[in-house]
Specification:
Layout: E1 4-8, H1 17-30, E2 34-36, H2 49-66, E3 69-73, H3 84-95, E4 99-104, H4 110-117, E5 122-124, E6 130-132, H5 147-155, E7 160-162, H6 175-189
Parallel strand pairs: 1-2, 1-3, 3-4, 4-7
Antiparallel strand pairs: 5-6
Helix pairs in contact: 3-5
Length: 190
């Protein structure tokens, strides 16, 4: 049986989105898996921008439901965390108990990135919990992103692969993605 893999990540927003997606699609096929890729569909004209957004959301959910697994790119996007759409997709797939793998092209974990975001202005509170200057707790659980995403993958037997890609290739380096493909293919075959 061929495993259908939903390819989640912020690549759809890149200026060279089609090229980046095509590379991941080819790598997925080469690993013996069937790619299910956002960006591989045409949205019919819609009367409003909101209707257009709803149409994309509906198609993405249909694509996820057709898939057996997900590989999610959790490389930080527009901030210290992964793309929020990718987070939704990963949660959606985990809620259906589908196979889940993820990767990031940034080696620093969520704690390190959050401290840098706050320019080091963090301190332990009276209970020993790390807090930023705005009073919010800093997640400190040795995970690449929010514990629900990282934990969701690992608790389903998947793995989160960490790779430190060059800054100019954060969203196009496929090293960690290829490791996820190998792990998933091995799991599906065995």
């Amino acid at each position: 049986m061929s495993i259908k893999v939903y390819l989640a990540g912020p690549e759809v927003f890149l200026p060279n989105a089609r090229e980046a997606l095509d590379i991941k699609i080819a790598l997925t096929r080469a690993a013996g898996l069937v790619p299910v890729s956002p960006g591989d569909f045409t949205i019919p004209p819609q009367p409003t921008k909101r209707a257009f957004g709803h149409a994309i959301s509906e198609i993405d959910e249909q694509m996820m439901e057709s898939a057996d697994a997900i590989i999610a790119n959790l490389t930080p996007y527009h901030g210290v965390s992964a793309d929020t759409g990718t987070c939704y997709e990963l949660g959606y797939m985990c809620a259906q108990n589908k196979l889940a793998y993820a990767y990031t092209n940034v080696a620093k974990d969520m704690r390190q990135r959050t401290i840098e975001y706050h320019k080091g202005e963090v301190a332990l509170d009276a209970h020993g919990r790390l807090r930023s200057a705005d009073g919010f707790a800093v997640e400190d659980v040795d995970m690449v992103d929010n514990l629900m995403m990282h934990g969701g993958v690992e608790r389903r037997g998947g793995q989160v692969v960490v790779h430190d890609a060059p800054a100019d290739r954060l969203y196009t380096d496929t090293t960690a993605f290829e490791i996820c493909l190998k792990l998933l293919a091995e799991r599906a075959g065995g």
